[in-house]
Amino acid sequence: MQKILNVALAKRSYPITIGENLLSEFQHFKLQAGQRVLIATNETIAPLYLQTLIDMLEKHGIKTDSVVVPDGEQYKTMETWNTILTALLAHNHTRSSILIALGGGVIGDVAGFAASAYQRGIKFIQVPTTLLSQVDSSVGGKTAINHPLGKNMIGAFYQPQSVVIDLHCLKTLPQRELSAGLAEVIKYGIILDPEFFNWLEQHIEDLLNLDVNALSYCIYHCCELKAKVVAADETEQDMRAILNLGHTYGHAIEAELGYGNWLHGEAVSVGMLMAAQTAKLLGKLTQADIERIKNLLIRAKLPVNRPTTMPIESYLPHMLRDKKVLSGQLRLVVPTKIGHAEVMDGIDKDVVFQSIQLT
Ligand SMILES: NC(=O)c1ccc[n+]([C@@H]2O[C@H](COP(=O)([O-])OP(=O)(O)OC[C@H]3O[C@@H](n4cnc5c(N)ncnc54)[C@H](O)[C@@H]3O)[C@@H](O)[C@H]2O)c1
Ligand SMILES: [Zn+2]
Q1: Is CATH 3.40.50.1000 the classification given to domain 3-172?
Q2: Across 133-137, average pLDDT
Q3: pTM score, whole prediction
Q4: Could you tell me which of 45, 218, 55, 60 has the C-alpha nearest to residue 127?
Q5: pLDDT, position 328
Q6: Contact 49, 169 (CB under 8 A)
Q7: In this structure, what is the dihedral angle of CA atoms 163, 180, 212, 110, given to the nearest 10 degrees?
Q8: Which CATH architecture has domain 175-357?
Q9: Which residues are catalytic?
Q10: Cα 279 to Cα 286: distance, rounded to the nearest angstrom
Q11: What whole-number distance in Å separates Cα of residue 52 and Cα of residue 48?
Q12: Is 142 helix (H, G, I), strand (E, B) or coil?
């Protein structure tokens, strides 16, 4: 069973195909015999899926090269970006070549940014292999690398020509990474869709057990929700900002404790609860809704308490440095009920302290 979602962006519209064993199916890549491809992936994913993809493409008359970069957020750098560009040049790839990103969000971001820059832009296909990248980075066209002075600070908006989500790939994903992806899934329910939140309350264990029907419904629905937000607001103003629920608090945790110690989704889980406490302190959310959110996160095997090693005072400097902050004013996304969120400006620092303390 396959599901296809069209991300409607006028001339830059593209399909997201979700199904099992799609790495072995040519049609969804939207390629033609005779075209040339470079696959960018990492050391962890290459032994699992690279050969399957190469064999399938070669069988259909696509000349395929690959470049394998080190695994990890710490390699989402200018250097890795350059490694991919060098591979394109070394194999004499032209403006009509296509770059395929095979991997999680790190590979998708750095390869997408390389595609946007190589000869001023070549076609790009995403094959996201983590739940997080499937429900988040497949939609929206954001690509980026990190700079020593800031995460995701250099990049471009660049849409893929196709996104191919092979559910089979999730079988090798470590459970902690799967749960981290579920944090973003739960986020969509909280900010946009009360019925989806209900559905998650009924199906969270099915998702953890990689039930194919549940996964395929869930991923499709998340991409659809994000696509709606993005289509309404392609270059990120107010509407798109609600997708950052939990991310300002979460980034403080990631930055303070070092990227990689807490996974992004884990930090977002705790960050969403902090944002929920903020909403409650401002009289905008009930305790009952906080409990529902917390219970679902617990069942998804996500952390719900702040890291004990991180002093409360160390959050604010990171939060004020967040790129979503406007001119020194603290701006946060807060849930106002399950299925709805608002962007709030000028939040009092004491409220922030208390929100952290309560989590
Ligand atoms: N562009 C966007 O809109 C967007 C959205 C969200 C996140 N991101 C970015 O995505 C990154 C996080 O993405 P992520 O959570 O996918 O992390 P990731 O790419 O680091 O992948 C997590 C880990 O899982 C491994 N892995 C990936 N797929 C696997 C599989 N099928 N089987 C076994 N192991 C596998 C990876 O090698 C890595 O070790 C961050 O850099 C973040 O900034 C971008
Ligand atoms: Zn996120």
Answers
A1: no
A2: 96
A3: 0.95
A4: 45
A5: 64
A6: yes
A7: 20
A8: Up-down Bundle (1.20)
A9: 120, 142, 184, 226, 236, 240, 244, 247, 251, 264
A10: 9
A11: 8
A12: strand
